[in-house]
Amino acid sequence: MKHLVRKLKTMAVLLVVVVISAHAQKTPQDMDRFIDALMKKMTLEEKIGQLNLPVTGDITTGQAKSSDVAKRISQGEVGGLFNLKGVAKIRDVQKQAVENSRLGIPLLFGMDVIHGYETVFPIPLGLSCTWDMKAIEQSARIAAIEASADGISWTFSPMVDVSRDARWGRISEGSGEDPFLGAAIARAMVKGYQGKNMSGKDEIMACVKHFALYGAPEAGRDYNTVDMSRNRMFNEYMLPYQAAVEAGAGSAMAAFNEVDGVPATGNKWLMTDVLRTQWGFDGFVVTDYTGISEMVDHGMGDLQAVAALALNAGIDMDMVSDAFVSTLKKSVEEGKVSVASIDKACRRMLEAKYKLGLFENPYKYCDVKRPAKDIFTPEHRAIARKTASESFVLMKNDNQTLPLQKKGTIAVIGPLGNTRSNMPGTWSVAAVLDNAPSLVEGLKEVTKGKANVVYAKGSNLMSDAAYEERATMFGRSLHRDNRTDKEMLEEALRISADADVIVAALGESSEMSGESSCRTDLTMPDVQRTLLEELLKTGKPVVLVLFTGRPLVLTWEKENVPAILNVWFGGSEAALAIGDVLFGDVNPSGKLTTTFPQNVGQVPLFYAHKNTGRPLNKGWFEKFRTNYLDVSNEPLYPFGYGLSYTSFTYSDISLDRSSMAVNGELTATVTLTNTGNRDGAEVVQLYIRDLVASITRPVKELKGFEKVFLKAGESRKVSFKITPELLKFYNYDLQFVCEPGEFDLMIGGNSQEVKTTRFVLTD
Ligand code: BGC
Questions:
Q1: What is the model's pLDDT at position 617?
Q2: Which of 53, 56, 108, 112 to mutate to test the pocket of ligand 1 (most atoms within 8 A of CB)?
Q3: Would you state the pLDDT for residue 673?
């Protein structure tokens, strides 16, 4: 009887939900009315339950009912789950929420869909080197289509942390060192994931992360303390988060680190004053994994205290800590948090579900026909292949070593040459690791019948077996070879002896970057360097195909290897894309979005540095100027750098006027010419320097870019409109202003090689 009454009650609630939502989805007022009505029915426990995001173990289909999490769901203790994929499983679990909990509120299903889903795109750092906003948006769109087809409603992406520290493993997950470019990419990604308004069946909710400043940990060590001035924060680090918010990101994730001495997760100034009041964010904020309970170790109090701190700061959802569900009720009773704060957070969670259309159809992402139709399709893979080829950066190409010809014998040598599992790159949790062809397989396919592609491993990843194990986790083993270094080397040289060209596949394994994968030595690992030296001694042309998730120290390689193609980790189609570029079917056009240092002691090294009171004039060492005794201040490869198989020249810059008023604008134009004999694309970059201001300003800042495709011999005018908005910065009082005076305007193909002119901003 009791059971029947409960069932009828559930049905009544569902009916209300359905009736209301049939007329809903229209205006914000409709949403408010719907949520008001729902919240009136909710107990305090149920409201707190909406704020809880536990991680699921792997629930097998059909077992959801009996799992521990199902019990919690039916008790209304869960607002969402993450790391569960597959329509059948998700439908099963969703059913628990919709049919077996008192109010039938649907769950969110989150996942780290970071750079593609099963069709994997290049790691974000590589993707950023395309400078192609359409391609980046499309990569997120395809990721959303595939993830939604597999039951996922919410992705923990985009990761927009600016980082200038090559030691930090997660530099691979972001868009590099520049806030202007990072902001453009943040907007493109949010748009790609969320589509028109998140209500479509293939549109999912984005989560901008990690708010804030996670990319600047001391010593480049993950999770370490961050401490920076508000001046630097707002001028150099905040822009991409703000851009994602303005693009409508439905959620944000708190960073693990502290900001101004208070962990981001408990920082009210950050989560409420900046994010909501200043920027107008109206989505919900989730913590990072155990972000709340980690505040105990930060020294902010016991679990109850830190949970209250987080809620009061403006956090809405607790990822994995179980801190909200286990302590908030008690905190209400003790007057440490108010019911109003819980209501606010609960409302935001319900709003997210409403915006996704989950009240209308909780099984919106559970169409059994979709996975076969929408995941890892030939169309998606073709796009991923093209995008990957755009992300590679040609660092060096002496004597036109590249492109190669599809003929003769090509020896692929190196520990990264025949691994499938390492191709997708770090944070590719939905990748089927065996789906991605290895480099040698890819090159065989691309040269089919025309060239003889042979392979030898040549060396292990590094001589230290324990290090190699740490660097190849999560099923990404390189299958350490038990032969001696000498035996492996001899085999490589034997195989190379018959080759016309050697493709050395060296660098990092995919798990040498990413979360908790920081390094202090960024040179090529020992045995790989030895292998490279020996390959060069053969006198045959050697192309270094460099796999990496971060800037490496390539000083020796730059000096000694004739051609270097940096392929990052290019995703599921990487091997074919590498073939496209190596053989010249695609002309490389990637440009670095992160500075490569000469040595790790220069880090953090970035182009938009300040001048200081003792800048170095020309050349290198000068006593009592800002420099080192042992190495110049120059990067090995600067921000914006990348070669092509063709060449481009820039005319001088012409301005349509030499001064503009604070309400005016001017246009800067260059003529770009493809002076080589191949068609190709060039990323034209605009930089500006504010010469005199009320606070010190960087020597240059990226303020515009355009990727231009030109046929061999073709010229085109490229123009940038300069508005006062572009000249604004946060002044000492953190007001966003532009100040009249002189500005240098620079246009060129990288941050160092630019044409320069000057204009004036008048009152
Ligand atoms: C990472 C986040 C990620 C979360 C959930 C954390 O360790 O910092 O970026 O979204 O785990 O997987």
A1: 84
A2: 112
A3: 98
For residue 640, being part of any structural domain is answered with no
Q: Are residues 574 and 717 in the same domain?
A: no
Mean pLDDT of 236-243: 98
- pLDDT band at 68; cut points 50, 70, 90: confident
pLDDT for the residue 21: 47
Dist. CA 385–CA 41, nearest whole Å: 51
Q: Which atom of ligand 1 approaches the CA of 156 most closely?
A: 10
For atom 10 of ligand 1, which residue has the closest CA? 156
Give the Å distance between the CA of 279 and the centre of ligand 1.
24
User: At residue 688, what are phi and psi to the nearest 5 degrees?
Assistant: -135, 145
Q: Per residue in 361-399, pLDDT tens?
A: 999 999 999 999 999 999 999 999 999 999 999 999 999
Residues 655 and 590 placed together within one structural domain of the fold:
no
pLDDT (tens digit per residue) in 101-117: 999 999 999 999 999 99
- Alpha carbon of 55 to ligand 1 centroid (Å): 11
Whose C-alpha lies nearest to ligand 1, atom 11?
A: 289
Same domain, 435 and 584: yes
Q: Are residues 661 and 537 part of one domain?
A: no
Q: How far is the CA of 289 from the centre of ligand 1 (A)?
A: 6
User: In angstroms, what is the span from residue 191 Cα to ligand 1's centroid?
Assistant: 21
Tell the residue nearest (CA) to atom 8 of ligand 1. Answer: 288
Averaged pLDDT for residues 56-74? 71
CATH number of the domain encompassing residue 698: 2.60.40.10
Q: 458 with 592, same domain?
A: yes
Which CATH number covers residue 386?
3.40.50.1700
Cβ-contact 222, 186 below 8 angstroms = no
Three-state DSSP class for 705?
strand
Distance 535 CA to ligand 1 centre (A): 40
Specify whether the backbone of 291 is left (phi greater than 0), alpha (psi in -120 to 50) or beta.
alpha
Residue type for position 216: A
Q: Parallel, antiparallel, or unpaired for β 501-507 and 284-286? A: unpaired
pLDDT at 580 over 80: yes
- The count of structural domains within the chain is 2
> In this structure, are 468 and 524 located in the same domain?
yes
Output the pTM of the full model: 0.96
**pLDDT higher than threshold 80 for residue 57:** no
Token output for 553: 């120290």
The set of protein residues with a Cβ atom below 6 angstroms from ligand 1 is 112, 156, 209, 288-289, 515
In a domain? residue 184: no
Q: Under a CB-based contact definition with an 8 Å cutoff, are residues 576 and 442 in contact? A: yes
- The residue nearest atom 12 of ligand 1, judged by CA position, is 112
> Do 591 and 448 belong to one domain?
yes
Q: Are 394 and 642 in contact (CB under 8 A)?
A: yes
**435 assigned to some structural domain:** yes
Q: Which pLDDT belongs to residue 690?
A: 98
Residue from 581, 583, 585 nearest 565 by CA: 581
In this structure, the residue with its CA closest to atom 6 of ligand 1 is 289
Residue 6 lies in a domain: no
Which residues are annotated as catalytic?
A: 288
Domain span holding position 585 = 381-602
Residues 576, 681, single domain; the answer is no
